[in-house]
Amino acid sequence: MITIKVPATSANIGPGFDSLGVALNLYLTLEIHEPTDTWEVIHDYGDSMPSDQNNFIVATALRIAPLLKPHRLVVKSDIPLARGLGSSSSALIAALSMVNILDNKHYTQDDLLQIATKLEGHPDNVAPAIFGGAVAAFYDGTTVFHAPLHFPESLSFVTFIPDYQLLTEKARAALPETLEFKQSVAASAISNTLVAALAANNIKTARQLIEQDQFHEEARAHLAPELAIIRRIAHQQNIIGTYLSGAGPTIISVVDETEAQQLMTAIDLAQLPGKTYHLHTDFTGSIVQTND
Ligand SMILES: Nc1ncnc2c1ncn2[C@@H]1O[C@H](COP(=O)(O)OP(=O)(O)O)[C@@H](O)[C@H]1O
Ligand SMILES: N[C@@H](CCOP(=O)(O)O)C(=O)O
């Protein structure tokens, strides 16, 4: 049996729209079992998720390798669907990794990133899902340029996952088509400076910038009302900043490890519809294991 393990990801990290992302310690695992006559996907997502060649993982694999031989697959995941934690990117990387193995493609991690970004449209989830850690990336429509962003290791992520789903497609449809020149300059300067501050462990500057996104959060605020509520709660504590994870609706507060429990308790007291988790950076990224 072959097992592919891919982490969840949180994209944007505030002002880094479509460019910054970090891998988190929730995982999708895809087990590849024996060859079969037709594709069989065993999962516990419920009846609305296909269990045959129409399953997203198989369909994605067949887009890349239409003649791939069917196998019995088992998918296990603690990454919730359509919550802004990159479930579709993790599934996509699992699919491409399966093609890599079954079709002997010899894709490097960089090849995977280029193909995955073409399929996903933006690199900020797929890059950290492949490499682990935090990544900054830019896709010009043809090529992805990327570099690791070394976060201070003491940072962790208090993560509120609402009970409701929000498809990324719907949250992207809420975005403006254009951004005025002056605002674009500010938005990109905020993002650049946040990246430099995080890389330099300059927490004071990171704290001043992480909630200053000008690209997407305001346009999406009505789709994820918990963002404003959790920000208010978090501002009463010693946190670094709170942002909309990916397209939402998950809300993440970046905190020093030692401050996490106090914030989780405060969020839980607000009794919002959802659950709070204390997540950490996954530094490994996607891995493939061959078991007997
Ligand atoms: N493990 C999986 N198996 C099959 N399809 C999946 C899986 N994970 C995600 N998907 C597909 O991706 C959709 C969610 O993607 P998206 O709206 O981009 O949200 P997010 O990536 O933030 O979780 C799901 O509704 C489902 O169609
Ligand atoms: N930059 C994208 C990230 C989408 O992430 P997801 O986890 O919600 O799929 C966006 O903000 O649309």
Automatic annotation (TrEMBL):
Kindly state which reaction or reactions the protein catalyses: L-homoserine + ATP = O-phospho-L-homoserine + ADP + H(+)
Cellular compartments annotated? Cytoplasm
Q: State which Enzyme Commission number(s) the record gives.
A: 2.7.1.39
The alphabetical list of record keywords is: Amino-acid biosynthesis, ATP-binding, Cytoplasm, Kinase, Nucleotide-binding, Threonine biosynthesis, Transferase
What are the residue boundaries of the GHMP kinase C-terminal domain, all occurrences included?
A: 195-266
Q: Which residues form the GHMP kinase N-terminal domain?
A: 56-133
Name the residues that bind ATP. 80-90
What EC class is this? transferase
> Which pathway does it serve?
Amino-acid biosynthesis; L-threonine biosynthesis; L-threonine from L-aspartate: step 4/5
Does Amino-acid biosynthesis count among this protein's keywords? yes
- This protein's source sits in the domain of life called Bacteria
One annotated GO molecular function: homoserine kinase activity
**Protein family according to the UniProt entry:** Belongs to the GHMP kinase family. Homoserine kinase subfamily.
**Annotated function:** Catalyzes the ATP-dependent phosphorylation of L-homoserine to L-homoserine phosphate.
- List the protein's name: Homoserine kinase
Q: Which organism is it from?
A: Leuconostoc falkenbergense
